[in-house]
Every structure is written in C-alpha cells, then in structure tokens.
Amino acid sequence: MKRKLSFFTFAIILVFSLELLSCSKKNNSVKVDDKEKPSKVLDESKVDEGHSSDALVGEGMPGEGMSGGEGMPRGEGMPGGEEMSEGEEMSDEEGLPDDEEVIAEEKRIASEIGDLEKDLSDSEKPKEEEIFLKIITDKDNQLGFMEYGDELLIPQKSDEGFTLVHSSKNKLERNFYDLNHRLTKKEVWNYKDYESAKLKESYTYLYLNDTFTLLKTVLDTDQNQIIYEYGPDGLLENVQKFFCKDENKYLISEKHILYYDDKRIAEEESKYYSYSENYKKRTDTFQKKYKYFYNDEGIPPDLEYLENGELKLKTKYSSEKGTYTSQTFFSDDISVKSYYEKSFRVKDVYYNKMKVVRVRNYEKNDISEF
Q1: Are 195 and 174 contacting, i.e. CB atoms less than 8 angstroms apart?
Q2: How many CB atoms lie under 10 A from the CB of residue 172?
Q3: What is the pLDDT of residues 265-322, one digit of tens each?
Q4: CA atoms within 13 A on the CB side of 210
C-alpha cells in the first residue's frame, strides 16, 4: 500500500514539474507583429549542469529574475516607459523631432541664409560717390555755369538772343534762342573731347512772323536733309527727304497729308523716287496712298489703300465692334474678301471678274467651289 502511494506521489510531482517547465518556456517569448519570437537564443554548450533554462532567462539583468513576467522595472532605460526585450528593433519614428521642432529649425536656417545673402549683397554694391553741385554766377548774379557730376549747363548771351549748352557724358547739345525766347536752332554733338568733337545732327526752326506757330523744321545730318512743313494750325502737311552728295541734294521721298475740318487725317500720299547710278537721272516713282473714312466713336475708320493709283486693300467696319470686312485686290479681276466677327476671321470669298468662284468657311473648315 505504501509502495503504491509513493509511486502515485512521484507521478503527480513529475506532471507538475513538466507543467512548470512548459509555462516557463511560454513566458520566454515576446509577441512582435502577431508572431512569437524567442527573446534569447541559448547556447546549450554554455548552460551549466544542474541549471534549467528558466534560471538563465534574465541572467545578468538588474532586478529580479524575469521568470513570471518580472525583471527590468517598467520604463527603466527605455523611451516611453515600454519594455523591449533583447533582439527587438527600435521603431523608425523613435527619437524623431515633432512638427513644431521641425518648423522652428527651418525658420532658424532660413533666417541665417537670409542674413548671409543680405551681407553678400551689401558687400557687392559699389559705394556711391558723393556728387556736388557747383554753380557760378556772373557780375549781374545771373547763372554763368552749373556742374553736377558729369553734366554741364552753360548759358551764353549774344546780341541775337542766347545759347544754352548742355553736356552729359559723350553727348553735347547747343540750343539757340532768339530774343523772344523761341528755339531757332539745335545742334547735337558726339563729344568725347575737344579734338574729336563731331556734329551729329542739327535742327533749324522757322516760325510764323513773331508768333510761336511753327512753320518749318529742317533736319540736317551727314547724308540727308529732311524738311517738315506745318500749316497755320500747327498740323504737319508735307515732308521731304533729300540725299546729299557733293553739295547737291536729290529728292528721294516726299509725303503729303490732308485733313478733315475736325483735324483728323483724311489722306496720306507718299512718293518714293529711284535714280540711276551717281544720281544722274530719276528712273522710277512708286506711289502709296491711304484714305480714311471715320465711323462712330470706338469704331476704327474705314480704309482704302492704293499703289500707283490702283486699289489694293479696302476695309470697312460695321457698327458692331470687331465685325468688319477686308478685301484684297490682286489684279483688276481677282480679289479675296475676308469676313471677321469678334475680330476672328470666319469666311473668305474669292472673286474673279466680280463673280464668286470659291467660299471658305473657317468655322466649319470647309471649301466650296462655284
């Protein structure tokens, strides 16, 4: 009876020991990503005899043994107060700055860069030299000379009026005035120094009697002379351009302008002249004429353009802005009339001897032959 009891007791102890061993192995695993991985791989060759694997788990760690969930105190040595067993990797976001820290650092760096760029920009700017104004007056306390930087202003009196000399860098101008303070002549010089000074162009002004009404302006250059003539109301009426050679002048172009009573241009006629070699003989004349017919305010004027007396272009506007027709004449027989709506070309009509031979609609992108 005693023998049977001892065997039964031994069996119970053995089952209990196996159960403890199984529980100890389960506690030695950490759940990561829903999969159990061993917290520590044991080298069986280093396990001393008489010690179970339970005794080695947590060995060498501060605190009590890790069997049964005990061991390193929560929060000790780990960020966030969480446990991390050996072999478990730190999360990628651990230790990263928050959004406010990032924004603050970006602002600091931007400020540093801005200060650096400002310092560099200031260092590259040339220092401006101080400019002084110098004025000299005559015995009557009238202006005799004025200097400011590289600019000079010198008034000069004469029996016919006075002259005003203005110099700036490599350019010099002399303006001549009569006793009525009217500008009668203007000279423009290329002026680096006295020896290299060269007259570039000059203007001569003629007035109606003692008034300020300008009648004529004559522009002279090295090779050309241009004469501008004005009417009593000050409107430009004629322009003539000459080629100057060996003290001779050859008319190469001229323009005549007519006006309506309200001073709007009615016609502009230009003629261009061709010459033989050395300008011995005039060989050809080319003529252009523009005629303007005005519409209501806000609508451009109708236009006729002629070459050598032949009509080449006729444009007529409707009362609706952007709607008009423009007819181009290629010869006496052939012409093309284009229609526009809202300033877009919508149709072309081709004529031959005043008969429609083709129509092209741009909106439908089709061509009709007749």
Answers
A1: no
A2: 19
A3: 999 999 999 999 888 889 999 999 999 999 988 899 999 999 999 999 999 999 998 9
A4: 2
For 195, list phi and psi in degrees, rounded to 5: -70, -35
C-beta separation of 321 from 312 below 8 A:
no
Give the C-alpha distances (Å, rounded to integers) separating 246 from 223, 241, 249.
Answer: 10, 16, 8
Considering only CA atoms, which of 295, 302, 271, 296 is closest in space to residue 284? 271
CA proximity to 251, closest of 274, 228, 220? 274
Which two tokens mark 242? 């000459």
**7-63 per-position pLDDT tens digit:** 455 555 554 555 555 555 444 444 444 444 444 433 444 444 444 434 333 444 444
Query: Quick one: how far is CA 280 from the chain centroid?
Result: 53
Which pTM value belongs to this model?
Answer: 0.60
Structure tokens at 137: 């007056």
278's tokens: 């050395």
Quick one: which H or E segment has residue 317?
strand 310-317
Q: Is 169 helix (H, G, I), strand (E, B) or coil?
A: coil
